[in-house]
Write a structure and sequence with these properties.
Blueprint lengths: L7 E9 L2 E12 L4 E5 L6 H8 L8 E9 L2 E2 L5 H7 L4 E4 L3 H4 L6 H10 L6 H14 L6 H4 L8 H13 L5 E5 L7 H18 L2 E6 L2 H7 L2 E6 L2 E6 L1 H6 L4 H8 L13 H6 L3 H4 L1
Parallel strand pairs: 3-8, 3-9, 6-7, 7-8
Antiparallel strand pairs: 1-2, 1-4, 4-5, 9-10
């Protein structure tokens, strides 16, 4: 039986003009329908990796060496026009600042329409149906009043759902979520994590979830890769990363996780009164 190739296979090193070795022989695979978490502290090279996968490193003055395969095809051999046809259609990205990712001068409806028409040439009815399906997938309304809103009229959570709706308009095989929940409050973060999990189940979408937050990664991902100073030092299921971490850096990350304080049991009202000084009980 021949096994299907990984959805994404990465073997990369990345240099910047004045900073060589930002990524050093980073190696991992993502299978179709898998959520891989990539964890590392600020400056470890997480966002550099997402730019390298999208072949956008040149915008930051970076160069990549190695192999980058998507569905068995070498992305590094593709022209810029071929990559433009892939970005947003086969590989999409969701960033951490949703309101800055939207055009403040345009209403939501036209922005979604532009995202759809970037990779499709259909009728207005087909565009409307695709937008409606995407908004329903992220639990947002597709009625005319909502589509007439501007980004300034959205909450941060709504704006992030709009960005995710744009990213899944064409049902990409791979979604890169780069710190996609770091700007959200705790409740909205939980809702977005649940949304990613549901999209993964319902659409079979592979997800690369990049974060510095081990707890959110643990709740979402099938496997976790630990990035430290440009190198992946450990990769495994959450049970390994949290239960039996192999690398010293992973052990430090797990040990640094916040823990709830232990409060002593509170006495009942009756026992509290019994312990009061006599002059208070008089």
């Amino acid at each position: 039986m021949t096994l299907a190739p990984p959805l994404l296979s990465v073997r990369l090193s990345v240099d910047y003009r004045n900073k060589p070795g930002v990524l050093r022989e980073v190696s991992f695979d993502i299978q179709s329908g898998e959520i891989l978490g990539l964890v590392g502290q600020s400056g470890s090279g997480k966002s550099t990796l997402s730019l390298a996968i999208l072949r956008l490193l040149h915008l930051k003055g970076g160069t990549a060496r190695g192999n980058l395969l998507f569905k068995g095809e070498d992305l590094s051999a593709k022209s810029e026009s071929q990559m433009r046809s892939l970005r947003g259609r086969e590989i999409s990205i969701v960033l951490q600042s949703p309101l800055s990712s939207l055009n403040p001068a345009l209403r939501i409806g036209p922005q979604l329409s532009e995202a759809w028409r970037a990779h499709a040439s259909g009728t207005r009815e087909e565009c409307t149906a695709a937008i409606g399906n995407a908004l329903t997938s992220v639990s947002l309304s597709s009625d005319a009043d909502f589509l007439r809103r501007r980004p300034s009229q959205l909450s941060v959570g709504q704006a992030q759902r709009i960005i995710i709706a744009m990213a899944i308009l064409h049902r990409p095989g791979l979604l890169i979520a780069d710190e996609a929940t770091s700007a959200l409050d705790t409740i909205t973060q939980s809702e977005i994590l649940g949304l990613f999990a549901r999209l993964n189940r319902e659409l079979g979408m592979g997800i690369l979830y990049i974060s510095h937050d081990l707890l959110s990664v643990a709740s979402l991902c099938h496997r976790i890769a630990i990035l430290n100073s440009g190198e992946i030092v450990e990769c495994g299921p959450p049970s390994q990363i949290f239960g039996t971490p192999q690398h010293e850096y992973t052990r430090k990350l797990v040990a640094a996780l916040p823990r709830l304080p232990v409060f002593p049991p509170q006495p009942s009202a009756a026992s509290s009164r019994d312990s009061e000084p006599a002059f208070l009980r008089a």
